[in-house]
């Protein structure tokens, strides 16, 4: 059972934009029998709105005659005990909008001899006259449920098929006939019967008007399949769709009352009767109410967007610095507001003098000051459950370890220096003059150790000696004193290059902006200075530039150049060069404008209406027309077994074309290109999708595994229709297909072999074919997990129990009445832990909440490794993960939005897996049942082998351990009341609400086991509020407990 805690943050004071109130659905005409109640329904665009109901000019009020009900956006008028005088027109008004409906009351006199239980047809079939190609719908409504229908065409039975679609919903029976032809002209009959032997029948004639023979009257445009609400995650693609009754009609799409402008991100697609609104790369700005209008008909649906977790766009890179320099690690995230943590060898580091954190938009930096050799290790940046890792390499400064003098003047002196690397070219200098190998000076290098020997020292050999390795150096002095006694100063000088902030120098022409002709080469050279050497990054439109077939980036000391060959109009924009080192950073913008060019590829290229010899090709104009009007389109085809493209037409003016004279049972690939005065652009074609990503196995058992993966980054221009799952067979050294047509990004595989290792991979499929395979999963070993088991004595047990554990075996000795019972058994457990208990909010601010909970009752046989904290805004359906690495039993959730209402939940995780989000406290003492065949031994070692089994049970009066007596639930959510108890023998359990006994029903379920009881009520309403009482009774005693339930929300 999930225990959900509600948090109402302080109201933020933001103004709410006033939105015009309107009807989402209007009341319909009603026909009722005298004495029955009549119910008019409507729904409005806002919940907190009062409507007025009128009969004629009289305003109606709730009372003995009328009930007026408000439930969310739904409004209801109930006319009780209808009489003939109640017939007439009823009006509902909201703001300036109003709607009317008529009530017809049928007097009982007409049905004096009719019994209520007789099966009657309320709405019979109606004769219809339609044109060829249209869709026909026959509807028949009856007065009671349970009837079975049969449909006939001229007394010949017809069945559900592609031509005839037979549907029943509640009391309405529907026959839909697709693509009406002259041969469909007939009399259609529905015959109904039920188990009581009652029968009813209705018939209607269908007349088909042939084109060219009759004067055609076009049917009013209407929606036959409405839009549906959608909830998705940001950055995803969603599709609203509906169906209308007329081919290739044009519909009007609006969002929150404003007409939608279509572009490369928001597309409108028509496929015969189906109309789709496709929204790519969804953001919170796309949330709202979407309406499609077909003639006088409308359909409304709502789009809800949940926040996507932050991810890394640019990962950390390994850094190499010199000792005593600063190191800078940089990463880029997909969200600016993401909160990151920095780690050193997996342990979190805090900001201070040594470590400094910087944030610039979605760029995050870790600066490590004054690096030393012991700073060399792995550093990582973490956001949510994702991490980016890189290593720091520190090059030590060279140092003179020892300086030797063997004799007095006339003897030799040896200088020795040790580096941290082999094979480095070095130089020795005396008084800034390079020393050359010879009889006087001998230089030796052995790996990291370098020596200079000065032979037979004399006064002229005095001075400063320098050792240089690349740009690092060390110094020492040699002096002679007194009677040519030689000594060397032990002082060593280590020098580090002077730090300088980065500077970027560009040509004046680049600073003023660059205009290029499409197809030419773009060069962006820059001079970059700074010490230490700056790290240079090029970006365009917030995306880091990376080398590809057209783009090359050459960065070397003091210079960085971006070169773009065969430039396109899409290369226009602002390019940013940024240089960063430990002393600072600099950014400069370069504006590039590409002139006219050939057009881009057409958009939304699709294939439909496929037959043996033809298909319909449709597309949208290119997103980029190249700066010149599109003159025509060029369409080509090729067979999949050929590489040759054949032109179908090069003079197409419209954005659709029917390809004919195709070879039956042969596969084709089509492509279309747009043409303007500058030439023919890139073609658009339907390609196979990219490979799925993120494949990983979960929930591994001895004979099964669950695979999950992510959708491909590219769908190839056609929606993904399914996935293939493959397994690697090492004996045959090939991949074997296990499943195809998998509709989701998750698949459960069973029937695997225990102690066998498996690898899996996945392919995505669209209309063009299957993708390349995903990266293979990590090897999976199917096995049963063994876990430690802890035996606890029940406080009611009066016998002595001894436990001897040696995994995976458990030996238990029970002594009672001088007799010892010994038994040994094997334990195999694969359970995750039970849920954390008693989650509560202990402190609230305007944008944070402090949570606290207690550890789970059971750890599942494996230690708890971490807790998972999630939050949910009550206005949204989806849960958001806050943190998956919580080690403590408390946590501060931030940031929260001021003025919002939140729900929180916590789960525990061990080596086996994650617990449920369930809050319940098991008692310390539980009824324990063990069933063993035992060997009983007396003190005199006489032995009996029992053929029967023994059951050890511990008894106790029923007790209820309620930790809370108040539960708050949001309207529409599931109400769950968990009751932990102790009772042996097992008790009889009954539930009451406000004194009336509860029974299981459509919305209410009751569950229980040896230690707990659970009452669940789905889709809670305000009427579910009240006092719920549970009664436990066994042969020893009985007890009761009560919980007060409140239902909030409109």
From TrEMBL:
Q: Which SMART domains match?
A: FN3, IG, IGc2
Q: Where in the cell is it found?
A: Cytoplasm; Nucleus
Pfam families cross-referenced by the UniProt entry: fn3 (PF00041), I-set (PF07679)
Q: Would I find Cytoplasm among this entry's keywords? A: yes
Domain Fibronectin type-III positions: 601-689, 691-785, 832-928
- What is stated as this protein's family in its record? Belongs to the protein kinase superfamily. CAMK Ser/Thr protein kinase family.
Q: What is this protein called?
A: Titin
Source species of the chain: Bubo bubo
